[in-house]
Design goal:
elongated; Arc Repressor Mutant, subunit A; Class 3 adenylate cyclase; WH_DNA-bd_sf; about 220 residues; 5 strands; 11 helices
């Protein structure tokens, strides 16, 4: 496999925005759709057909297909539908090199990335509560924004406020993310007393284990 083939698949999610915004669908759903596509790699898919095959709702499949097309991983054609339809149906076929890269390299790495997210989100909570999105209190996007800033900062120690300002998130959200990362051993926390403050300041820094785990996630996910 060439470098271009192995590097292509991670840069799909969010491609329709030029990767300037979150993809609006999870890694898990991306994997499910890609598994359906690569199970029949010669097939040309409509959004409706792919939604039925994958079990993922049409609105999400439409976003995945738009990202595949925008990133150059799928060819788009059009089929004139019924006279009652104002617009032709878009058809998508994933390029062979993308199928090869997905099956041979990226599928397993995306699965590991998804397992990492599941392990972190809600780790500070009791098992029952950790299954509730409301109890977790933040999104995958927020987690990725915080970890991205931590990775970019090298060995720097951060307060929740500094991380929030850099990541564009409110401080309370960042605190929840950091507590979960501490719970799984991906962050250390250092507490400093300050005579001018009633509450000690907490400084967070990635551990070596956290850095290794999340570096692979970001390499895989673009």
């Amino acid at each position: 496999m060439t470098t271009s083939e192995s590097a292509s698949t991670p840069w799909v999610r969010g491609a329709r925005f030029g990767w300037s915004k979150p993809a609006d669908y999870s890694v898990r759903l991306f994997v499910v759709v890609m598994d359906a596509v690569t199970a029949d790699p010669e097939r040309v898919w409509s959004v409706s057909e792919l939604a039925r095959e994958s079990g993922v709702k049409r609105s999400t499949v439409r976003l995945v297909c738009a990202d595949l097309a925008a990133s150059g991983q799928a060819r788009v054609s059009h089929k004139q539908g019924e006279p009652s339809r104002l617009l032709p149906t878009k058809l998508y076929r994933v390029r062979p090199e993308c199928v090869t890269a997905w099956v041979s390299v990226w599928r397993d790495r995306f699965y590991r990335a998804d397992a990492l997210t599941d392990a972190v989100m809600g780790a500070r909570l009791a098992d029952g509560l950790a299954r509730s999105t409301d109890a977790i209190g933040y999104s995958v996007y927020s987690l990725e924004q915080v970890v991205g800033r931590l990775l970019a900062g090298g060995r720097r120690s951060w307060t929740a406020r500094d991380l929030g300002d850099t990541a564009g998130l409110n401080c309370s959200t960042v605190r929840l993310v950091c507590r979960d990362l501490v719970a799984v051993g991906h962050l250390t926390v250092r507490i400093e007393e300050d005579a001018t403050r009633s509450i000690p300041r907490k400084f967070f820094r990635l551990t070596d284990a956290g850095r290794a785990a999340w570096r692979e996630r970001f390499e895989n996910n673009g």
